[in-house]
Specification:
Helix content is 9%, strand content 56%. The chain is mainly β. The chain has a single domain (43-179), classed as Porin (Beta Barrel). An 8-stranded antiparallel beta barrel has the order 1-2-3-4-5-6-7-8.
Length: 188
């Protein structure tokens, strides 16, 4: 019986030493949640306001709305179209409203989109609507999954039409846009 007790005691003492070279079972971790990549391919709607100044010291305020769609052709490059309509304050031409229909080309760096824009511009003047061109550049930043803020500079030129002199103007706008489709944007 002494031998049996000694053998049991030896087994208890020696068994941890025999298992010392074995690894503990691996702990399985839950898979990481996939964070959706920010995509700029989305349709959006928004509002903007700012200042316009031009020939003859015709400084004025401007506010309006914009709507557009972007298509992300690669991880960095974005193509888009945008239209806007805006109310123009006291303008030397007596204008009440302006509009533009433009293309956009952008380069995305994470949540920031650097872009250039150009296209057709329209300006309401007494008894006429002037046509011209507009071009500019801007920076847009996605500060929330579906929301972006922007700052944009544009130069616009209107051709002479009848008694209306046309001319050049520049504008600086800030805006806020809601993108349909959430953080990844609406993929086409």
């Amino acid at each position: 019986m002494k031998h049996l007790i000694l053998m049991a005691a030896a087994a208890v003492v020696i068994s941890p030493a025999l298992a010392a070279d074995q690894r503990p079972p691996a702990v399985k971790r839950a898979p990481a949640m996939a964070v959706p990549a920010l995509g700029w391919g989305a349709c959006y709607v928004g509002g903007h306001g700012g200042a316009v100044w031009g020939d003859g010291g015709s400084d004025s305020g401007v506010f309006g709305g914009h709507i557009g769609c972007n298509y992300q052709i690669s991880p960095q490059w974005v193509l888009g179209v945008e239209g806007d309509v805006e109310r123009i304050g006291a303008h030397s031409q007596g204008s009440n409203w302006g509009a533009s229909f433009r293309g956009r080309v952008g380069y995305a760096v994470g949540a920031t989109l650097l872009y250039g824009t150009a296209g057709l511009a329209l300006l309401d003047v007494p008894n006429d609507t002037l046509t011209g061109w507009t071009m500019g550049a801007g920076v847009e930043y996605a500060f929330a999954p579906s929301w972006t803020g922007r700052v944009e500079y544009r130069h616009t030129n209107f051709e002479r039409s009848g008694s209306n002199s046309g001319g050049d103007s520049s504008s600086l706008r800030v805006g806020l846009s809601y993108r349909f489709g959430g953080p990844g944007g609406f993929r086409y």
